[in-house]
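Need the bound structure for magnesium ion, inputs here:
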Amino acid sequence: MSAAPAPRSATDSPEKPPEFIVTLRGLSKIYQQGDVNVTALNEVSLDIARGEFLVLMGPSGSGKSTLLHLIAGIDRPTRGELHVQGIDISRLNESQLADWRNQNVGFVFQSFNLVPVLTAAENVELPLLLTRLNRAERKKLVATALDLVGLADRMHHLPKQMSGGQEQRVAIARALVTDPQLVVADEPTGNLDAHSAHEVLGILQSLSRDHGKTVIMVTHDPKAAAFGSRQIHLEKGELTK
Amino acid sequence: MALPLRYNIRNVLVRWRSTITTILGIALVVSVYVLMQAMAAGIEKSSANTGSPDNLLIIRRGSTAESSSIVSREQLRTLLYSPEIARTAADEPLVSADVLVLLNLPRRDGGGEANVLLRGVSPRGRDLRAQVVLVEGRWFDRGKREVVVSQRLAARFAGFGLNEEFRSGPATYRVVGHTDAGKSAFDSEVWMDADEARALFDREQYSSLLVRPKDAEAATNLIARLEKDKRLQLVAHVESAYYAKQTGTATPIKWLGNFLAIAMSVGAVFAAMNTMYAAVGARTREIGTLRVLGFRRRTVVLSFLLEGALLAGLGGALGCALSLFMNGYAVGTLNFATFSETVFEFRITPALMLQGLLFSIVVGILGTLLPALRASRLPVIAALKSL
Ligand SMILES: Nc1ncnc2c1ncn2[C@@H]1O[C@H](COP(=O)(O)OP(=O)(O)OP(=O)(O)O)[C@@H](O)[C@H]1O
Ligand SMILES: [Mg+2]
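Answer from helper R.:
Posting the output first, comments after.
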């Protein structure tokens, strides 16, 4: 750790959330492929402020997805420090990490990843099944989340009965329904037409602007990147600006 | 918390082709298992149904079965007027000296020949076996080569219809009556007069004696007396108890049933495994997604096990339902104690169906175990990247 912790002043309330929701210091991820080591991330240091809409760009293979996966607690770093919401998530064991993901992170994938046999509402309800909420409370949250993405009328449709844009909006509703502080999206518009992409990006933008969520999005598309509040670039596993 | 059951139900429905194949396969295994056990249960039931607790069956010491026993006329004379034995109103002792003869007769459907057990009974034999009732025709007269056969045998052998005739050896016999023995072992017998049978089949000796003791005490005494009498070389059994123990025919069927069930269930387990491996393979990314959302490995395993159990349970239920069509259906098989055709019904009991169902669920769980473990072992990130 380079920076010494700032002395706490008497006016700081202990409940005050940290300024940065995500703090990375010297974060590296090295994949071992046979005898070859592939360095996907090399000593990345980064702070992400609460409420930011951060856009991650960079050429293919530069480590964007890897970084996103580490921040979201889907994968583990090889070296370095990784604090999210003040917690060193690399120290959590597997089931703690699963619970942590459920409560703190919403995910949006390029290929939507909805469960094909479940309806829109049932897909959105999935993360809530791991909470203590009762059926009625879950139903209410699901309705609110689907309403937020403009799909209240598609509750009972199966994924195959919806367009790609609608599927991705259901996926966003699923990411939001637990009210996580952090939403990560890996090329969420990669499989969408311009119109659907615009809708999805608008929703993500409003999440950060109107609802105070921190959104981290990977994209190749400069037009999509323009929706973000800050852009960073990765190249060969390192931040360039 | 578990994944909702409807998730599994819909997955099973979505891949309906493989579901139907798996269900049919397991249904087949379960119905074979249930039917074999139902056969054994039917035989046991028929044995348990036979004879009266008030009678004693006397056979030669050392004989394992009535059919291999010999009782001489000398021995009959010694016992006939024993004080323990009850008398009729006409003061005749209630004793039937029976002779058992195996006849090889053609089947009615032209399906070859089979052994049938002919029992020669003394005049008192009918009174001693009240469970055998005449349903058609009349009882046989002595000396006219007349027989009565059970209704159930009548359906299975040529010339067993009422007033029909059949040949055995040089002689021809006329069926003058049909009997119903209440699903007991006597339903597999042809009856005629004992002394006539001895003459016709050239038997010097009887096979067994059936006697009615005066009371329970007399019965105990007679059993004890024969036990002690080393000269007579006879043993007395309570008739119903003797037949209840004659489940020898059921045992090989049970074994065969178990063997077939095990052999077929190995196949069924692999079939289920194949189906579930395919299901897991097709849903790898879905599993990864569920894990990202916070579902645990064990939840995923449990969900797949449940799905496998559900699938196999459906097959088991179908198998039980199919086997029910055979409930009460009368069949014949070789009785290994008498080497004759024995007729009994498939007895499919609720307990047996439950067994079949549990059996199928075990098959399902065994078949799903490895695929489910594979599904859960995959790291989240690898599952997500799979296509
Ligand atoms: N499981 C793995 N095993 C080995 N190497 C891996 C693995 N996952 C990623 N890599 C490597 O790490 C590097 C970064 O991959 P990553 O998926 O983060 O790139 P990306 O920037 O998301 O690319 P894209 O834009 O194509 O999605 C690549 O060189 C990739 O080959
Ligand atoms: Mg990527």
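Comments: The interface with chain A takes residues 1, 3-4, 6-7, 10-11, 14, 285-286, 288-297, 380-381, 384 of chain B (CB under 8 Å). The longest strand of chain B covers residues 95-106.
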